[in-house]
Amino acid sequence: MSNQPFPQPADPASSKNVWYSCHCHCGAKAFKIHHEPLVDTAPQPAPVMNCNCSICETNGYLLLYVYRTDIEHIRGWDDLKKYQFASKTRDHLFCGICGTSVGIDFLGSNRKGDLIAINVCRSSGES
What we know:
Layout lengths: L17 E6 L6 E6 L18 H6 L3 E5 L3 E5 L5 E3 L7 E4 L6 E5 L9 E5 L3 E4 L1
Antiparallel strand pairs: 1-2, 1-9, 2-4, 3-8, 5-6, 6-7, 7-8
């Protein structure tokens, strides 16, 4: 990961949170994330991180950190393929059909909680 400060995930109990639909390119994997608004007009837009490590740059990640409990699995989540490298402390998740990178599972190793970083480029907006 980069040496940027790690963003604080949204408070799961916030009444301002909305659901965002996300999916891979082919649609075989679909899920929703519950998070504070991502738009610039929000009182405090959600922190999206542009990591500068090699795999994040290659995959074009723009990452939003969410708690595992704030992800609703719609289709194919359990079938996501996993790739680890370097420290092997996290799974990079991607669709095995179309190859779309959907995020990073920190496998409970993050000090801020059980987080998954979602590639917000895969969001199709509020649902």
